[in-house]
Prior knowledge:
alpha/beta, TIM Barrel, Oligo-1,6-glucosidase, domain 2, 4 domains, five-stranded antiparallel β-sheet, binds alpha-D-glucopyranose, SusG-like_C, alpha-amylase activity, Oligo-1,6-glucosidase, glycosidase, Glyco_hydro_b
Amino acid sequence: xxxxxxxxxxxxxxxxxxxxxxxxxxxxxxxxxxxxxxxxxxxxxxxxxxxxxxxxxxxxxxxxxxxxxxxxxxxxxxxxxxxxxxxxxxxxxxxxxxxxxxxxxxxxxxxxxxxxxxxxxxxxxxxxxxxxxxxxxxxxxxxxxxxxxxxxxxxxxxxxxxxxxxxxxxxxxxxxxxxxxxxxxxxxxxxxxxxxxxxxxxxxxxxxxxxxxxxxxxxxxxxxxxxxxxxxxxxxxxxxxxxxxxxxxxxxxxxxxxxxxxxxxxxxxxxxxxxxxxxxxxxxxxxxxxxxxxxxxxxxxxxxxxxxxxxxxxxxxxxxxxxxxxxxxxxxxxxxxxxxxxxxxxxxxxxxxxxxxxxxxxxxxxxxxxxxxxxxxxxxxxxxxxxxxxxxxxxxxxxxxxxxxxxxxxxxxxxxxxxxxxxxxxxxxxxxxxxxxxxxxxxxxxxxxxxxxxxxxxxxxxxxxxxxxxxxxxxxxxxxxxxxxxxxxxxxxxxxxxxxxxxxxxxxxxxxxxxxxxxxxxxxxxxxxxxxxxxxxxxxxxxxxxxxxxxxxxxxxxxxxxxxxxxxxxxxxxxxxxxxxxxxxxxxx
Length: 589
Ligand code: GLC
């Protein structure tokens, strides 16, 4: 009996094995398994440090006054020396440059100002050879009005590209008022060619793409695939919260500029689009994606980056950069609150980026550190220590590793930025106090963050041999890479130490964050615990000395980083006395 059962099984074994083998072949992925993608747990994009390059301002090699790819290639060793592991570069595509490249007229073409596709490839290969990943800026909430899609779309009402954009036929009357971020006259623009209005959330030359149209979405995925095939490792989705908008076109209620996203963006369809994008591009190509904006609620943020939902891997919010918009600065208590709140939102799931500046903001040093020459070094080191110690991927904006500051531009004539000019017009027509307006613009404008990189003390800061597209900050003779490169106490070398500290201490990446003495008026202290480590981060945000009592104190052997040469502890009363802007990290049991 036993035998009779066993025999047929034995005869079936080769068939079963063949079946198993065929199945294994069938299941084998067509493409090599994407080793770069890891939504759960540990991931390279969580462990990395990102450096943002504004290509126009980084390094010019042909003397035309604009930075270029060859300039970045020339500085690859510098990038490697920083210890950064990812580069996000602002748009370099074909563009009429109304919004410095955020108005794209050909998503596959390179603006000759920056070089050629071969130069791009050489730059990308050079980064990869140094272990640096590349993040591409994808500007697809809108295109340029010079993009072929828009030229077609506006040419006639029955053009196949008509529905690539949002149109309002004039026979329906004037569309309900919508606020525009850049255009004081609102977001609908009349186009006489077809007697209709088109929508532009940003400048008039940046018409919004219609994401409800599946063809538009497919075009975008094809563009992303094109770049993924060239080898880019990630995407930054520009202004993406607006991709899905309320197309019942409600009237914009006055005074709601701050709730802009709530009124116009983050519609539920956004999640559907992202899921589609994830399945089409992100997963099969093993790339990662970070969105500009995290919605207007924690739930939004969660849903965007919750790994189980397969939408995005990372998002960033504006609550911290919004803290310091006027020369009065910010309150440390608010600063702690915002960072702690967002950390708790992602305590279990999801991931954010940690940043205090970028191309849309004035310089971090002026807004969050202290540009006074007496304090600029320790205070910038403190801020950089902070950025590298939080949970979330640190994003460093070019120049912040050497403490570049705002430039003084007190009169409107010097401004070229579409946002600044739009705000100026709006302020003027609403009768604002223009002196006060200019003071705030001078402090807060994004032109501050776009001045050429300060490489050395030679003419034009070593950025160009020609006339730079934007004035070099006159403080380049003091603040520059060359002056700091060999000085072990410089902002630059502190930055390099911090990228190393972050790499060597996984608790800084994955560890749990907990505030210590939340109410302390000068000191931001917190612990990071995990990966077998307990770390304490102590930052004196004041220009005066300050002290804090702790259960554990730093010693020679547990000190991980210190931006001064000594530490002043009092074992008697367990207090730690910190110098102005002193920043420490130490481990404890
Ligand atoms: C994003 C970009 C900004 C640009 C805007 C319109 O906010 O960061 O620089 O002006 O989108 O594309």
